[in-house]
Amino acid sequence: MNTVLVTGAGGYIGSVLVPKLLEHGYHVKAVDRFFFGKDKLAKHHALEIIQEDSRQLNKNLFVNIDYVIDLVAVSNDPSGELFEQATWQINHESRANTAKLAKEMGVKRYILPSSCSIYGFQNHIVNETSETNPLTVYAKANEKAEKDVLKLADTDFTVTIMRQATVFGYSPRMRFDLAINGMVYGAWKDKILPLMRDGKQYRPMVHVQDTTDVMLLLLTAQQNKINGEIFNVGGNENNYQLGPLGDIVAEEVSKQLNTPIQIEWYGDVDHRSYKVSFDKIESILQWKPKWDAKLGSKEIVEKLVNGEITKSMQTITLDWYKELEKWRNIIKDVELHNGILNIQKP
Questions:
Q1: Interhelix angle for 137-150 vs 95-104, to 10°?
Q2: I want to staple 8 with a disulfide (CB 3.0 to 4.6 A). Which of 72, 96, 106, 272 is the partner?
Q3: Backbone dihedral region of 143: left (phi > 0), alpha (psi from -120 to 50 degrees) or beta?
Q4: Model pLDDT for residues 112-155, shown as the tens digit of each residue
Q5: Which residues are within 8 A (CB) of 342 and not within 5 positions of it... i.e. 6 or more apart?
Q6: Which residues lie closer than 8 Å to 154 by C-beta, 6 or more apart?
C-alpha cells in the first residue's frame, strides 16, 4: 500500500481528494490545521489525521512516504491581501520546504497544485510557456513556490506543477466564495444573478472532481511525461465568457426552482480577461474534464434545494479566517489558569 501525504487535506479540494485516494487503495497522511473542522474527512482505517501547521513540518513526518500532494494554501486573493505575511509563509515558503524535506527523505513524487491566476490578465490565449503576470500576493506566492520546487526535480524525485483553473463544484468543505458556486447560490437565494459588465471577459474553470482526478493520474503517469513539467488543468471548452456563463447558471437554477432567474448587470465594463490553453494535458496525458458549468450548477442547486448544503461563515474563506482571529483575541484576553469558567486549580 503506497502512502500519500496530503497537506491542506481538510480544505475545499483536500476533502474531495482524500476519499478518492482511499478508494484507490492508498494510505493517506492528512496534514492540516483543520480550520474548518476535522469532520470533513470521514474516519477510515487507512487514514491518519495529523493536525499541524505546514510551516512547522519536520523530516520525520516524511518517513515511508511515497508521494506528496501539497495542497496547503491561503486560498484566495482577498485572504492573501489581508493575511499577506502568512500567505507568503504558507503558499511559498512552507511548500518549498515540504518539497525539500520530501526529496531528502526519499519521497518519489511531489505534486504542487498551483493556479492559472499566475498568468494575470492577458490579451491572448496563454499556455504553459507563456510569460506569467501575477497580480496578487496569492498569485505571486504560487509562482515563487513553482520556481523553487521545480529546481528539485531529478531522476529520483519527480516534481509536477498543476496550474488549476478557477475551481467550482460541491465539496464537504463547501465554498461559496468561488465564481460559479457563488453565482449559483445568489441565483437560488435571490432569484437574481448580478454580473459585472459587459460579460465578454473570459475566465477558465475546472470542477473539483476533475482536478482531483488529475492528482490521482499524476501519481501513476509515466515519469518521463510529467517530471519537471507544468500542466494547465482544465478544458478548452471550460473557458467561459461571464455573460454566457451567467446564462448557464440562470437556466439551471431556473429549472430546479421552476421560476425565472433575472440577470442584473452592474458596474463599469470589466476589461480583465484571460483565456487558457489546455492542449498540453490533453495531448500528453490524454485527459479531458468530465464536468462543465452546466453539470456543476445543477449539482450545487440540487444540494441547496434538498438542504444538503447551506451558506455559513465557514463557506466564505476570508470571513471564517477573520472570525477565528477575532475569537482567538477574545479568548486570549479572558483565559486564566488554562480555562475560562472551568479552570485548573493549583
A1: 20
A2: 72
A3: alpha
A4: 999 999 999 888 999 999 999 999 999 999 999 999 999 999 99
A5: none
A6: none
Cα 95 to Cα 161: distance, rounded to the nearest angstrom: 12
Paired residues of 275 in beta bridges = 125
Does pLDDT of 185 surpass 80? yes
How many CB atoms within 10 Å of residue 324?
15
How many residues appear in the chain?
A: 346
Burial 209-248 (b: 16+ CB within 10 A, else e): bbbbbbbbebbebeeeebbbbbbbbbbbebbbbbbebbbb
Q: How far apart are the first and last CA of the chain?
A: 48
Q: Cα dist. 312→109, 127, 185, 318 in Å?
A: 37, 37, 12, 12
Nine cell digits for residue 85 = 505575511
Instruction: List, in order, residues 6 or more apart from 30 with CB less than 8 Å away.
Output: 6, 9, 10, 14, 18, 41, 47, 48, 49, 50
CB 193 within 8 A of CB 187: yes
Predicted model pTM:
0.95
